[in-house]
Amino acid sequence: MTRRRFIATAGSGAAAFFIVPRAVLGGPGYVAPSDKLNIACVGVGGKGRSDIAAVSTENIIALCDVDDRQMAATLAAAMKRDPAYGRRLKQTKKYRDFREMLQENSDSIDAVTVSVPDHSHAVIAMEAMKLDKHVFVQKPLTRTVAEARLLMRTARERNLVTQMGNQGHASEGARLINEWIADGAIGAVREVHVWTNRPIWPQGIPRPSGSPPVPEELDWNLWLGPAAFRPYHPAYVPFSWRGWWAFGSGALGDMGAHLFDQPYWALNLRYPTAIHASSTPFTEEAYPVASTVHYEFPARGSQPPVNLTWYDGGIMPKRPELMEEGRRMGDWGGGVLFVGDEGMLMCSTYASNPRLVPEKLMRSYKRPRKTLPRSPGIHAEWIEAIKKGEKSTTDFDYSARLTETMLLGNVAIRLQSKNRRLLYDGEKGEFTNMPEANRYLTDVWRPGWEPELMGS
Description:
The protein is built from 15 helices and 15 strands. It is an alpha/beta fold. The radius of gyration is 23 Å and the shape is globular.
């Protein structure tokens, strides 16, 4: 039996009733639920740094990054934060190529975190899952719809514990929103507005000119991964890749996983049936500076159809007449406004500070009993689910659909000049009234980097 199978089964059944020596139960490879997982982390800068720290309750046995500068900065920050933690990371195996890391440690790794630019999420996650490793992937789950569906299908087939890094999903605010909506606090919801201050990086620009030398600390070929080759430029690395069609998912992909998540979960949304968009000018290379995307969702059982509108680049929804003068909509980063038949509910980024609108409705509202299980945090929840052999709350069954829905908005942005609503069949995963739009649901990967081939 593999190490992974022991972890998945040890948390259930009779194995939980006795405390006996490890060797008696399963020999040196056995891992009890109370023991620590062996986790490998791909991507150590930016969110990677905080993801490593968040899973450091376990054994971090390998670190991987294509940029030695990011590795050095993360090790220095760890030492400054906690010398003992810093020494642990310093002694951990280091790699540039995630494929080498996974192959060399395939017998000892239990789980993998993926915290890299969007275009490489799918290939790294697939390589890990084909080796039966549980995975935590930063948001957005993938850069294309085809990749999202591939990860969801693979996770199901291999019975893996997965999680996407949209931390607001684990918050108290997210659960309150679900419970208040279910309680009928604002009546049936037919309209939702979601907005963000992103992008906070350049967009709407042409491909940079020139070909500066590649820093010796950076493996540019590995950074490109599945993306078509192009010369290195600091306009892409280490932060502004989000604004380029080839590497990122724009403002919608960056913050949609946090903001879109609240109505998607609370209203039990699935795939939209129609999408259309408008935006400032964009180029063949970069997303627009600002956009508005309109989604139409069908009725779900007794819940009515929902029209959801997304705004980015500083565009905001119309201010409700019932909202008090001087009251801020959301917070500096964005917000969500649910419009129901009997009132409104507003929250800030990451589901924080949910309130009924107007405030007098909040003051008079008798809050329902808390019914949803509370989360210990997006990372801790994933770790706990692995040890118990359970599902996490934003696993790939959920987060792949959420990601797909967000990415459909980017397709609508690309095709806004067609002046028509894109009709979508979510069960088939295709546009039905504009077949040429379906090419934007997938991508052409560099030979050898196709995600469906990884791990084969």
